[in-house]
């Protein structure tokens, strides 16, 4: 499960062996310090043992390189690994969300981070079947402290920031953030479709269908052609979550929303890099 989680977070399902070992150690330490579930237990052995087991099962491949071995998965292996990844993805939902917030903005204060993540957190928690903490602010504060202790963030004058050194710490932080990237991109794409159409223009079925089609197109254009990224059921569930959270409601089967959703969507744009935002907008307008 952990090997799948770390490996599938990479853009091309390939990672240096030493970095994979470090990332597995990091995931295990995060689970020890901030357990994602009360009854989850870590496997016996070391990160190297877990990788060897995955190799022995034929779930991943090892390619020897003079500068260091690489662990990778082909398309068939990646499809199988998706099931194992999904077994534990929810344990690191909040960690991944916090790490993602530091991908394109190097520094955040606690107040700013809470304001940025609070609107989307219930939707993400619902998708991954995560029990939200009693206080998101307290959970974020604890998460920032642990990431600081592990060297992935550094405390600055006005909050927390990405560390300048070592560079490998930044790699590990980015890999954590990529755990949540597919879910966040799906949500952003769905909002882009909805806002582009306007209130009262789409049914829930039409919105989910358009979101699915655009996600499939985006996946092909970006080289991330994984069917699970554009699964129609995920978009149906997203629409239901937005309704349950009060962001959407129906009038004569048409989806309605107000300025609150527009403001939340505008605020969440800060999570994504400008190139991705441009591509999402372009794909949406073409549709």
**Approximate shape:** globular
Structural class by sheet pairing and helices: mainly alpha
**Low confidence ranges:** none
Instruction: Sketch the major β-sheet.
Output: 3 strands, antiparallel
Over all CA atoms, what is the radius of gyration? 19 Å
**Helical content band:** 55-70%
Quantity of strands, as a count: 8
Question: How would you explain this protein's 3D organization?
Answer:
The protein is mostly helical. Helix content is about 60%, strand content about 5%. The strands form 3 sheets. A 3-stranded antiparallel β-sheet has the order 1-3-2. Helix 6 packs across helix 8 (about 135-150). The radius of gyration is 19 Å and the shape is globular. About 35% of the residues are buried. The model has no long low-confidence stretch (mean pLDDT about 90).
Question: Topology, please?
Answer:
Elements: H1 2-7, E1 14-16, H2 17-33, H3 47-56, E2 61-63, E3 70-72, H4 75-88, H5 93-101, E4 107-108, H6 110-117, H7 121-127, H8 136-149, E5 154-155, E6 160-161, H9 167-178, H10 181-197, H11 204-222, H12 232-244, E7 249-251, E8 254-256, H13 259-268, H14 274-286
Antiparallel strand pairs: 1-3, 2-3, 4-6, 5-6, 7-8
Helix pairs in contact: 2-9, 5-9, 6-8, 7-12, 10-11, 10-14, 11-12
Can you describe this structure in just a few lines?
The protein is 59% helix and 7% strand. It is mainly α.
